[in-house]
Amino acid sequence: MSGTVRLTTAQALVRYLTGLSSATGVGGANAPLIGGVFAIFGHGNVAGMGEALYAHREHLPTFRAHNEQAMAHAAIAYAKAHMRRRMLACTTSIGPGATNLVTAAALAHVNRLPVLLLPGDVFVSRAPDPVLQQIEDFQDASVSANDCLRPVSRYFDRIIAPEQLLTALPRAISVLTDPAMCGPVTLALPQDVQTAAYHFPEDFFAPVTVCFDGPVPIEAELAVAVRLLRMAKRPLIIAGGGVLYGLASAALTHFADTHGVPVAETQAGKGALPWDHPLQMGAIGVTGSPAANTMAGDSDLVLSIGTRLQDFTTGSHALFAQAKRINLNVNTFDALKWRATMLRADAKLGLEALSAALGGWRADAAWQSKATAAAAGWRGEVDRITGTREFALPYEGEVIGAVQRSAHDSFARDIVVGAAGSLPAELHKLWRTAVPGGYHVEYGYSCMGYEIAGGLGVKMARPECEVIVMVGDGSYLMLNSEIATSLMLGLKLIIVVLDNRGFACINRLQQACGGEPFNNLLDGCEQDKHDAPHIDFAAHARSLGAAAENVAGIVALEAAMGRARAATGTYVVCIETDPDRTTEEGGCWWDVAVPEVSDREPVRRARIAYEAAKRTQKP
Fold first, then answer.
1. Is the peptide bond before 130 cis (omega within 30 degrees of 0)?
2. Over the stretch 213-269, which tens digit does the pLDDT of each residue have?
3. What is the bridge-based pairing of β-strands 4-8 and 197-201?
4. Which of 195, 262, 479, 589 is 20 to 30 Å from 600 by CA-CA measure?
5. Is the CB of residue 113 less than 8 Å from the CB of residue 73?
6. pTM as predicted
7. Do the domains spanning 4-210 and 219-378 agree at the CATH topology level?
């Protein structure tokens, strides 16, 4: 047939992906949109996708991981490190390979991050039904394990005929690259359909460059936002991940300088403004600095930019409930939150339009002075908290200080990666970054196990940087296998394991809610006559091929960090830390429900405090 090429579904899919490039907006050069494919092969994808990937391996590299959830985490981190302008795909077999993707897909969905998931699926023909690993639904024969991915995908399709790729693939790419709809895409690939052939139009594979232009503000919405800002005396900006993804850091800095508006940052937005900017208030919310949270509590207007306003940011709708609210966001769903005034636009274009319309307007002079004093005071406190202090056991804040001092005051090349437990709160408050992307903490889904795999994805995206993974012992034990992958790919990570003997963060929360400490720290868990295990994390990491050592105390940690920085391969440093101490400065109320009825007095007292705090909450 003229103008067509006969390919299998898998061959056509892979060829299409190789033809996509990204107008990255960084350095002016284009790059492949899909940087490669993570694959763990099984009977559901090895013959179809495996053969297709092998044929294109020089243009679309295939990477083998050790766990499907981990490889998807790495892919998500890769996209985040590229500010959503490049991404990876992941292919698995049917059954457990596919369902292992569900947690990672949920993480990507919550955090608005693109990843293309290509799980194998059962036979469409049903000729060998049921096949190995097939989920049999007694009411719906069309259901497979992949249907678990539907609620955690922004776009889901099951390809039951090769020609469906002609519509499914452009739709998938449009979702992956849309600033508002961005998130995980799942294309389920039945194994018989993967290998079935079709005469595809040649022009379907013509090279395509994806551009990332965001929407401009709607004039009517812009006018309302400008009017509200002009009336404000004590405005505060909350910078979210959308500032980074919109490449709007320079626009944010210009807006803050021009109009004298202080800036606080969410977990996803940290790094949008340099840590030492005079109007940088630091972290906002439950994990926030005292400077940011005090300003939020005193503000009369909050301009939230590119944030989904989760409860850690808003103090469960209590932190800045007194203020008027403007939400600048590309996504209407997020722009509507907490009954705010909407300004639907790209972060950069929205800030530029706001600044132009505001002209010479500035926040009240006393407010600016208060902000700069609070910011300077907090920077001094960070110096004190992260300084070298002698305790029987250090805690996360002191470890963070040692890690940053090992960079000899040059933070530009370091990217810190974290995810769950005590570390996100401490890193959010205390880590200093001067560049967008220097802080990479997943806290929308607070997913234990993301850290090491995420560090791998960041290193794939930013090989010139020193990627430092900071992870607790509990999270390390959940998912550590990609240490081996980092060595296989020659991608060096520095991994700092903080061993506080269990789930210390939740142990503290348990007690704050009136509960007895139980089933969180290893020594407080059900066990036989033997003591709880003492795990040698360095020995474990060495068994995976990494260089590793255990250290005691901050001075030893700093010395070990020097050795880790000098190493050529992945290096793991483990240090015992205090499960009870935290940074007391900052923070705000978080709505964690306390039992209304209990026979224990500590719980009853916690309930009284909870009800009092609830009265400050404004839905």
1. yes
2. 899 999 999 999 999 999 999 999 999 999 999 999 999 999 999 999 999 999 999
3. antiparallel
4. 589
5. no
6. 0.97
7. yes
Backbone angles phi, psi at 11, to 5 degrees: -65, -40
Q: Where are the domains of the chain?
A: 4-210, 219-378, 386-576
Q: Are 550 and 557 in contact (CB under 8 A)?
A: no
Give 336's contacts (C-beta < 8 A, 6+ positions apart).
327, 342
Nearest in space to 462 (alpha carbons), one of 415, 422, 409, 508: 415
Domain 219-378 - what CATH class? alpha beta
CB 21 within 8 A of CB 210: yes
Of 453, 479, 491, which is closest to residue 108 (Cα–Cα)?
A: 453
What digits encode the pLDDT tens for the residues 99-118? 999 999 999 999 999 999 99
Q: What is the CATH number of domain 386-576?
A: 3.40.50.970
Which residues fall within 8 angstroms of residue 330, CB to CB, at 6 or more apart?
Answer: 179, 180, 214, 215, 242, 246, 306, 344, 345, 346, 347
What is the mean predicted confidence (pLDDT) over 41-68? Answer: 96
98 contact partners, CB below 8 Å, separation of at least 6: 44, 68, 92, 119, 120, 121, 145, 146, 148, 149, 188
Contact yes or no for 306/337 (Cβ under 8 A): no
- Residues 423 and 418: their CA atoms lie apart, in Å, by 7
What CATH number labels 4-210?
3.40.50.970
